[in-house]
Amino acid sequence: MIVDRGDFFSLKINPCWAVLLLCLLLSACGEPLVLEEATPLGAERAALESIPGYPQGSYEYQLIERVGLKAEQGGMIDLRVWYPFSEEPAPVIIFSHGNWSDKDRYDNILSHWASYGFVVIAGTHLDGKNMARGIFNALRHGNDGLIAQRVADINYLLDHIEELQELLPLRLDANRVAVAGHSFGAFTAQQFSGARAITEKGDISADDRRVNAVVALSPPGPMFDEITAESWTQMHGPVLMSTGTHDVNAQFWPDWRDHKMSFDTAPDGHQYALVVQGADHYLGNLICRPDRDAEPQHDALNVVNAVSTLFLLAYVNGDLQAMEWLDQLELSATSGGFAELHTH
């Protein structure tokens, strides 16, 4: 969410990103992964719609495609904001997109949260918009630079909620805040609950008590030198992560369970993991990459929306009924084995 400047020809090439580029080139020639057989949704719609958070919420909402917040170093930060029509101060979700994606490609999830009364604020990070810009800034800043800038972006929004409120037609509740993200952005969100990027210069984390809860959609497993098996050993709840049994990548995460490492290695206490049968990294083409040549995974999207909304209502709004549902939800039975919710 900053204006980037620099001379491409003066770049020092980061070796980790050189490896990434090589992997991307080789992937076109590699054998596709054999996907696990997936259990289809085996539930009546009425059973699923009985789960609070599954149907569309009761709030009318609106999208503001561009909200300009003054940047610390000058210029403007362009934000995309979904907001509900509410007379009461609204809880806030700050959303962090995946690598090479942007703020505009997640409406299928963000609008659902808005329908339950949340203001959802999304910006575009230094590695976002497209592959070319992402690679350029990766080579320029390195992995640790991109990770640190993402944290700084979210921190800036947390620090300027009052200024954001002046730009929106409703009041924001700064005491009810979540950080959410997808893929690289899921790790960014987890950093606000104590997840760490481990670098030679020290850990990059942002454990922040202003954040009531974190939603991490398909977070990475270990990646490069900075995101390791130790990255989540200090991550406290409440955190919800999600993945799917087709959430695989031949170069980085050939086993979908790698995405679940953040749940498996985190300390006990308010940790949740949603696993959806047959769901991939982009729910087909419903998030992050809408131009992807893949079938949309609407059933998976609906389950992700339902469980994430229930989690947000419970831990951000303090909704006791939502908390009771979350604690007692037998998702595997309700969905006919299509989805499971784990906790510790």
From TrEMBL:
Cite the SUPFAM superfamilies for this sequence.
alpha/beta-Hydrolases
| InterPro entries given in the database record | AB_hydrolase_fold (IPR029058), Chlorophyllase-like (IPR017395)
Indicate yes or no for the key word Hydrolase. yes
| GO biological process per UniProt | lipid catabolic process
Asked if the keyword Nucleotide-binding belongs to this entry, the reply reads no
Which keywords does this Swiss-Prot/TrEMBL entry list? Hydrolase, Lipid degradation, Lipid metabolism
List, alphabetically, the Gene3D superfamilies matched.
Answer: alpha/beta hydrolase
Classify the source by domain of life. Answer: Bacteria
Q: Molecular function (GO) terms listed?
A: 1-alkyl-2-acetylglycerophosphocholine esterase activity
Q: Name one Pfam family in it.
A: Chlorophyllase
Identify the PANTHER family for this entry: PLATELET-ACTIVATING FACTOR ACETYLHYDROLASE (PTHR10272:SF0)
Write the protein's name: Uncharacterized protein
- Organism per entry: Zhongshania aliphaticivorans
